[in-house]
Amino acid sequence: MSPVPTSPSAAAPLRGAVVRLDRLRKEFGGAVAVDDLSLEVGSGEFLTLLGPSGSGKSTTLLMIAGFVVPTRGEVYVGGNAITRKPPHERDIGIVFQNYALFPHLTVYDNVAFPLRMRKQPAARVAERVGWALDLIRLGGLGGRYPHQLSGGQQQRVALARALVFEPSLLLMDEPLGALDRRLRETMQGELKRLQRALGLTVICVTHDQEEALTLSDRIAIMNHGRIEHLGTPEDLYERPQTPFVAEFLGESNALAAKVLRDDGPRTIVRTTQGLEMSVRAGAAKSASEVRLAIRPERIDFLEPGESRDNVVDAVIDETVYLGDAVRYLLRTASGEGLTLKARCPAGGGPGIGDTVRVGWAADAVMVYANTHAFVSSSGLPPPAQPGEGRGGG
Amino acid sequence: MPASTATIFLGVAPEHRRRLLLLLPALIFLALAFALPLTLIAIRSVTDPTPGFDHYVTIGTASVYLRVLASTFGLALTVTLATVMLGYPVAYALARSRGAWRSLLVALVLLPFWTSLLVRTYAWMVILGRYGIVNQVLMALGITEEPLKLLHTSLATHLGMIHILLPFLILPVWSVMTRLDPALTMAARSLGASPLRAFLRVFVPLTLPGVMAGAMLVFILALGFYVTPALLGGPADLTLSMLISQQVSELLAWGFASALAVTLLVATLAVLALAGRFLGLGRIWEGLD
């Protein structure tokens, strides 16, 4: 990887601005799309708004960009309220989902567009466009038209065009969604490298959790116009604050249960299907209804004599081969459905119909008070079946 | 090698031939109804009444015919420019409208389009006539005492033709506008373009292919217009099509009329070829997809 060429105008990188959303709200004819959203994004931070469609993430992005007028609330960039400014006066770079490159202009003219709109002198335009094209390593392709470029190249031109005028903030809408898998991984690396080197503040919107996990410093998981959980990718995955987050990010066995009793450092709960298990003590009040979530990779097949806090016998209903792992759909004697994810065993592992002993630690069970709705089945009680993998869909 | 070639020929050719067969009815119809009469007209123009290129020499030397040719092209050009100026905003409004507004606008564009050309031309005669609506209103308001001469003027010809040809411009332009990704204009705005500049630098250039297609259609239709200029225009607004009709029905000069028709056809084709070359229609389309 060649070093990132520094901006010729300033030896220092671009240095993104601090962005603050203050109780930002948008209603569309009575329906609340974004519900009093407050958020602060640090200078040089990469923050992703992640959520299912209709969660308000795109509306939030459009309000920051100025294309949607908030019902109320304020958007601050670098300490200035820009809520009433039209989009072209905001100085915010945007990379659109399908790049939105101007098909009638060459790569050079596309990248020069924002500078010409700012009436920069020709010499300055040439210098900046050269810098931006070098930045994305497409220096030789200035004369091409967008339709003569590959998807990855178009994506990079879109990035150059959004960065060339040194915006204080970069917005991205599903930036890698249109690329195939291999290219996505390359672009992820390149994007991250550029963002760090230039110190860009980035707000990205996506429904693709992999994109969010790999790119972001912090992720805000959105649902029904609100932020469910804001934290680092590790925070969100390891310690999801709500069952929605537990189910939305990664996979998770969702179970409804009732707290039975405290047992020293453990609390004993029983699921609606009658499966008893011990969870971390103090996670829930006695006799209360709770929601449980267990990551499939935290459940293990047990060797004879091996033990865990929770051990149960189950029959394998189904196996799904994932390449680097296998997902097993299990049914316990009490009728509880569980999903287990394990590395591919070298010798071929258990198969459908086999009875197996599985177990998991009390710490592996995430416990939530029964006030949150699960993501599955549109607000219905959690299904007895374990949550299906929710891969970016 | 010869064997395999034969196999390919035997294997593929019948398929191909059968598919070509589907084109046959249309080809026969075009040959009988279009190519044949056209050829006959071309032949007549150099044989009737005597063989030779006399008619073309006359057209080329007598200034009256060149003048009519020029005024026909002039009329078509003005009408085309007017439909572009009037039709582009309508297409834009159509592309931006939603729901009931859109249905209403579509109806307003299409209903006249579906009405007979003759009916619409007569309607203009009623409106612009000596005691038509316009004159009645003007006199009632005391703006004029005598009825103005509106019918059988160049103005009437222009009005009628613009009205009749507008949908031919609006529809292709509208189609291109609706296919344009709205993110392109948003991108322009985010990059610092004011609404007007985003419109002029991005929206207009990208909808230009539709304008070109529509304008070309209007221009070619306008060149051959007969009914409307004949009924609405004055004696001074002679178009080539009227001249041809005059030659046939009043002077029975079939050969000369044929020569005029061929002249109009060749001139039209020449304009098309020039437009295709210099406006770079193909290249603009290439960029869009």
For the largest beta sheet of chain A, what order do the strands appear in spatially? 6-7-8-3-9-10
Overall pLDDT of chain A, averaged?
Answer: 86
Tell me which oligomeric state these chains represent. Answer: heterodimer
Computed over alpha carbons, the radius of gyration of chain B is 25 Å
Cα(first) to Cα(last) distance of chain A is 32 Å
How many distinct beta strands of chain B? 0
Give the strand content of chain A: 25-35%
**Can you give the helix content of chain A as a percent range?**
10-25%
Explain what the structure shows.
The complex is a heterodimer of chains A (393) and B (289). Chain A is an alpha+beta fold. Chain A is built from 8 helices and 20 strands. In chain A, β17 (325-332) and β18 (337-343) form a beta hairpin. The two termini of chain A are 32 Å apart. Chain B is an all-alpha fold and 289 residues long. Chain B has 13 helices and no strands. Chain B has helices at residues 2-45, 54-61, 63-96, 99-114, 117-128, 133-140, 154-179, 182-190, 195-223, 227-232, 240-249, 254-278, 281-288. The A-B interface holds A 65-67, 86-88, 90-94, 96-98, 100-104, 113-114, 117-118, 145, 147, 161-162, 165 and B 181, 183-184, 186-195, 197-198, 201-202, 205-206, 284, 286-289.
Task: Describe the SSE topology.
The complex is a heterodimer of chains A (393) and B (289).
Chain A: E1 19-28, E2 31-41, E3 46-50, H1 57-65, E4 72-77, E5 80-81, E6 92-95, H2 107-117, H3 122-135, H4 151-163, E7 169-173, H5 181-198, E8 202-206, H6 209-215, E9 218-223, E10 226-231, H7 233-238, H8 243-248, E11 253-263, E12 266-271, E13 276-280, E14 289-294, E15 300-301, E16 310-321, E17 325-332, E18 337-343, E19 355-360, E20 365-369
Parallel strand pairs in A: 3-8, 3-9, 6-7, 7-8
Antiparallel strand pairs in A: 1-2, 1-4, 4-5, 9-10, 11-12, 11-14, 12-13, 14-20, 15-19, 16-17, 16-19, 17-18
Helix pairs in contact in A: 2-3, 2-4, 3-4
Chain B: H1 2-45, H2 54-61, H3 63-96, H4 99-114, H5 117-128, H6 133-140, H7 154-179, H8 182-190, H9 195-223, H10 227-232, H11 240-249, H12 254-278, H13 281-288
